[in-house]
Amino acid sequence: MQCEIFYNINNIKMKKLILIRHGESEWNKLNLFTGWTDVDLSPKGLEEAFEAGKLLKQENYKPELCFTSYLKRAVKTLNNVLDAMNMDWLPVQKSWRLNEKSYGAIQGLNKADTAAKYGDEQVLVWRRSFDVQPPALEMNDPKSPRMDARYAELTDEQIPLTESLKDTIERLMPYYNDVILKAFENHDQVMVVAHGNSLRGIVKELRGMTNEEIIKFNIPTAVPYVFEFDDNMNLQNHFFLGDQEEIKRKMESVANQGKAK
Fold first, then answer.
1. Contacts of 129 (CB under 8 A, 6+ apart)
2. On the CB side of 188, how many CA atoms lie within 13 Å of its CA?
3. Residue-level pLDDT at 253
4. 259 near 242, Cβ under 8 Å?
5. What is the rounded distance in angstroms from the CA atom of residue 47 to the CA atom of residue 150?
6. 161 in Cβ contact with 138 (< 8 Å)
7. Catalytic: which of 22, 48, 163, 238?
8. Cα separation, 242 vs 225, whole angstroms
9. Once rounded to an integer, what is the mean pLDDT over residues 78-105?
């Protein structure tokens, strides 16, 4: 089953990039800003990931190489997807550059409560704007990545204390171009399991979306988003796998998270 978003090309062998946002996390469930905070999947998120893998297997997708972030909600989603596909053996590369956008000082705050305090429009800007950053952390704040051992090799300049989507794209796309894109020189199918905003950055670049268009585009949890390319890596097609109405409902749910109750 495919939710069409571009145009469909049948019976032509394509190179395929499979993007998957992690399943529901414990903080997604509580409607909290997460960012670089290392939050686990909820039971629903684990189930969503497994169902995504079952769907990919059913549709006969066969990724050959996988990429994910340093955050456990993405790592565990990938693990469950591969388990459902009986492809646990696939090679996986991890990079902090695939991490979620940093929400800075608002990480851990409830989105609806924050919208009630600052207004829906301000929270929409912090969540979805292309070039506006949320309030920043201090480098020595307990929530700063500088305090996390997994980022010990990053310079202070590389440590994000807050990020806009533009910032996320700037630290992400060199990795996409130099590593993920080059993987297609030796592979026909590549899978990336990451986060709402890091994946939105990739999608914006691949689809040539404007800064205004990307604000309104939401990626639902654990729904495979397939991009098809010709041999020269020109985009030919893109679509979500799954039931169209259910996917629309999930997109609307993501969009409504930042609104005051």
1. 164, 165, 215
2. 5
3. 78
4. no
5. 27
6. yes
7. 22
8. 10
9. 98
Catalytic one of 24, 100, 163, 228: 100
Contact 67/199 with Cβ under 8 angstroms?
A: no
51 is catalytic: no
Q: 188 in helix, strand or coil? A: coil
Beta pairing partners, 239: 4, 226
pLDDT score at 260:
64
CB atoms within 10 A of CB 51: 17
Q: Rounded to whole angstroms, how far apart are CA atoms 208 and 86?
A: 35
Q: Are 63 and 190 in contact (CB under 8 A)?
A: yes
Spatial separation of the C-alpha atoms in residues 129 and 150, rounded to whole Å: 28
Give residue 153's identity as a one-letter amino acid code: E
Helix and strand tally (H, E) in the chain? 9, 7
**Residue 138 a catalytic site member:** no
User: What pLDDT does residue 12 have?
Assistant: 62
pLDDT of residue 5: 44
For the CA atoms of 215, 177, 92, 231, what is the dihedral angle to 10 degrees? Answer: 100
